Amino acid sequence: MADSLPAATLSASSPTTGLWLPVWTLTVREVVRFLRQRTRLVGALGQPFLFWILFGAGLQGSFRGPGDMSYQEYFFPGIAVLIVLFTSIFSTITIIEDRREGFLQGVLVAPIPRLALVLGKLCGGTTLAVAQTMLFLTVGPLLSQIGLAPTIHTGLTVANFVPVLGFLTVLSLALTALGYMIAWPMDSIHGFHAIMSVFLMPMWLLSGAFFPGDGSGWLSWVIKVNPLTYGVAGLRRLMAINDASVAQLPSMMICLTVTLAFGIGCTAAAVWMTQRRSALNVR
User: Fold this and answer.
1) What does pTM read for this prediction?
2) Which one of 3, 78, 119, 148 counts the least CB within 10 Å of its CB?
3) Which of 11-25, 91-105, 111-125: highest mean pLDDT?
4) Where are the domains of the chain?
C-alpha cells in the first residue's frame, strides 16, 4: 500500500505523468517478457528468413520484376513487412495471457487511464517489431554477401535509415493496434492463432509482398483496398534500387497517408474496446 501511494498522488497531481509513467512501465514489461522468451525471436525471424531464402532460390529463374529486379530483391521488403506483422500481432497475445493470470484485471482497476494500457501495449509491440525488422534489414544483405542467402542490391543505407525507421514505426504501431483489436475480445490463444491463419496471412499475401497484383483482374482490386499494400509499397519506395522498379506503385504520400489513417483508426477502436465494460475482464 505504501508503494502505491506515491504513484496515486503523482497521478492526481500531474495528469501527464500519470499517463506516461504507466505507458513506460507496460512498454518495458513487454520488452522484458520478450527477452525472457527467446523462442519468440526464433519464430519471428526464423520463418521469414526461410521464406526469403527458399522462395528466392526457387523463383529466381522464373521471375523478373519491375526495373529488372530479381525475385530476391522484390521479395525482400515483403519479408520485412512479414516480420513486422508477425512480431506486432503476436506481441498482443499477451493480452489473453494477462487476462488469464489476473494481471489485466489489476491494471484495469488501477488509478490510471485505460488509454495508458492501450498505449503501453502498442508501444511495447511496436518497439519489438521495429527492432527485429531493422535487424533483418541489416543482416539480410550481409548474409547474401557471404553466400548464405540470395544476392541482392537493396537494404538499409545511411541515406534511407531514418525514413525507413520512421515508416516502420508507423506501420508497426498500426499492426499492433490491429492485433490488440483481435486479441481483446478473445479468451483463447487457439482462437487467436485461427484468426492469424485465415485473416492475417492472406492479408499479407494480398499486399503485393509475395507477387505483383497488376493485371490479375479482381485480385488486383483486393490488393488495392488492402491497407497493408500501402505499407509494403511505402517500404519498397524507401528502399528502391532505381525509380523504374517502383514506377507502378502508389506515391509515398499516399502510402504514408493510408498507413497513418489505418493506424489511427485501429488505435481509436482499441481504446474504445478497452473502455467498454466486459464480462471477460472479471473472470
Assistant:
1) 0.84
2) 3
3) 111-125
4) 20-282
